[in-house]
Amino acid sequence: MTLTGKMLIGQQLICGNREAIRAINPATNAALEPAYLGGDGEYVAQACALAWTAFDPYRETSLEARATFLESIASHIEALGDELIERAIAETGLPPARIQGERGRTCGQLRTFARTVRAGEWLDVRVDTAQPQRQPLPRPDLRQRHIALGPVAVFGASNFPLAFSVAGGDTASALAAGCPVVVKAHGAHPGTSELVGRAMAQAVKACGLPEGVFSLLYGSGREVGIALVTDPRIKAVGFTGSRSGGIALTQAAQARPEPIPVYAEMSSINPVYLFPAALAARSEALAQGFVSSLTQGAGQFCTNPGLVIGVQGPDLDRFIRRAADLLPNCAAQTMLTPGISSAYDSGVGALTEHANLAATGLAANGPNQGQAHLFVTQASDFLANEHLQAEVFGAASLIVACASHEEVRQVSEHLEGQLTATLHLDENDLPSAKALLPVLERKAGRLLVNGWPTGVEVCEAMVHGGPYPATSDSRSTSVGTAAIQRFLRPVCYQDFPDALLPGALQHGNPLLLRRLLDGQREA
Ligand code: NAP
């Protein structure tokens, strides 16, 4: 497929009128063809108008038709073959195995949402039948289902060019809910975005859906992004990226005459707790697991273990020594963009100023290389210094040595909201872990035992979310099938004749849903 450098507004390939965006191969700093001219508010309005026209027909497509559409997107992405893999590697510097794995995850995610759509549980049908004889007042017939919120704006993430970009988790869950999607492509991988966007447009056409179900825009966040979030036809936003970007979009959404929800996944340092018995039994193995989680993908994961907390003593010292021995063998890796690489260098600079450097990875050789860094500090310093809690996006981590369990608790209470908290423990650690658990439940969206936070399973029970600033709305997840809930709202139908009810609510239950009928779940 020849890349055109154009936006996709419905089925139309359209050239923008603003400054050109050109992908940079971060491994070489070479600019890649073609140039993508950004759009302005006019293009945003066109895409949103089409999305609005598509909304009512799309949200009432049958469960089967919508599931087939999601599967068709996956098949069209797979049909792009090596061209997609090669372009994504060139635009991100990520290794082939990672990009291939991410394509598998993206298509698997779309097919998982297709199964979710078919099962229909997300409609959450509740029926309270009429009780005309009830005293003192009769009860009307009340029926509830969930419907789609409306067109959704999705911001492609730089660190997941497939799985959290044009056809990634936000898009898949919004489409599954019945919401048309307008994507603002991330400027770091415009060609990958075009390839996937065109595969999506082909799926829209193949499934006979209204063209406004999907559009793809290029341009600056401050112009196209804000115009999108403030367009009255957009009813929700999905975002993964920086805290400042997430806050700007949330504020713009809240300042609208009609405020809308923004699901922004922003910033997390993912504390890892090393409990004493676990440290005594296997500090060296823990150090090995930690270093490999820290350096995976140049540390460019929102779940990267950026903070390690333990009680000081010889076992924690052994952990630090082993990690410090291992780190110098870790090669520097190409980071996603020159901007992310320089943000990492400044974050490391700030940590160098405020904490003790324990070890570094192999020195960088070439442009945009992220060199791993490990720092150590005392809990009292951590508690007194806000700089030590800032996310450094990349393979940098800080070990906090605490004087006691009480200090572990104080450090935990001091933490901002997190995506994850990890507990390494043995049998003898259970009482102290149990004591800490209420704090960690308040702080994080996913709690893990004896594992590492990187690697997020796409499944029914996953929570990839957490209190601010991990996300802008802790009541939801952006990974896993529960992500569909973000784009739904309940509607109740009172005393409707059967002929006027949607299929999901009709008396005969034609969709064979497991409804909550008069307080009892149907078999
Ligand atoms: P970003 O700067 O937040 O950009 C993400 C998207 O948001 C882009 O489309 C960007 O538009 C838009 N945007 C950013 N600021 C905006 C604003 N003030 N108003 C409107 N739109 C705005 O994220 P990034 O480019 O991926 O990486 C930058 C930093 O974000 C990293 O160094 C890292 O610290 C953090 N990050 C965190 C995660 C995570 O999962 N926690 C993931 C990725 C990045 P433009 O096209 O104008 O840039």
TrEMBL record:
Q: Which reaction does it catalyse?
A: 2,5-dioxopentanoate + NAD(+) + H2O = 2-oxoglutarate + NADH + 2 H(+); 2,5-dioxopentanoate + NADP(+) + H2O = 2-oxoglutarate + NADPH + 2 H(+)
Q: Which Pfam families match?
A: Aldedh (PF00171)
Entry annotated with the keyword Oxidoreductase: yes
Which part of the chain is the Aldehyde dehydrogenase domain? 19-457
Record keywords: Oxidoreductase
The Gene Ontology terms for molecular function here are: 2,5-dioxovalerate dehydrogenase (NADP+) activity
- Which InterPro entries does the UniProt entry name for this protein? Ald_DH/histidinol_DH, Ald_DH_C, Ald_DH_N, Aldehyde_DH_dom, Aldehyde_DH_Superfamily, ALDH_KGSADH
Q: What Enzyme Commission number(s) apply to this enzyme?
A: 1.2.1.26
- Family assignment from sequence similarity: Belongs to the aldehyde dehydrogenase family.
Q: Report what the protein is called.
A: 2,5-dioxovalerate dehydrogenase
Q: Source species, please?
A: Pseudomonas trivialis
Recite the lineage of the species: Bacteria, Pseudomonadati, Pseudomonadota, Gammaproteobacteria, Pseudomonadales
